[in-house]
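Title: Prediction job returns without error message
Component: structure pipeline
Severity: low
Priority: P3
Assignee: unassigned

Description:
Job completed but the reporter wants confirmation the result is attached to the right record. Sequence as submitted:
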Amino acid sequence: MTPHNEANLGDFAKTVIMPGDPLRAKYIAETFFTDYRLVNQIRGMYAYTGKYKGKEISVMAHGMGMPSAGIYTYELFKFYDVENIIRIGSCGAHSPDLNLFDVILSQKVYTESNYALTANNEDCHIMEASSELNNVISETAKELNYKLVIGNTTSTDFFDVYMNDQQKFLDRIPKTLNVISAEMEAFAIFYNAKLLGKNAACLMSVVDSPFRDEIVSPEDRQLKLDNMIKIALESAIKI
């Protein structure tokens, strides 16, 4: 048990699927798992362990932003013997080629955050996903015949839609990265994996785009992400 997690050692599977939203974690357990049990509900950050196609897998919410995701993933890696974390979340598009609900797999993630400096006195702003996990996820998407966009992304400390001048932020990102989308957690998760010798990946569904007129409802943001969820689950049973 930690200050943020009431689960006991052994309550988590070796692979954990992590959405930001606790209700999305609940939805995944109730919709896709058999024999599932609630293993954490401190601060309403629900975590469940159950079976998907016979293999034990866990799902746990990590909240919004790098500080929240950083705490929960660090503790899973460090204190609960978790080996693999696949983040599943929403993102905003930075490319006109992306459509709403396109699923993105992050390769490298850039941040202006000082997360690594604070955590480990390392001035680091680019992290890479686990190539092992990414290879499995990419092959799984092909087998399912689901479109998967692979590219570099960014983790921000501020919701990109609310930025006073988003273009100035985009201009500061190294051009060689060709960033295609933005979310708020992957850098911390990737960095924790590097720090503790574990594996992490990040799948995202596009829910807003400055290049599209459509608006995704709160209900759709929460629940209509099943393709991304299925890619993560089908990948998890291969790890």
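Comment from assignee: result matches the submitted record. The chain has a mean pLDDT of 94.
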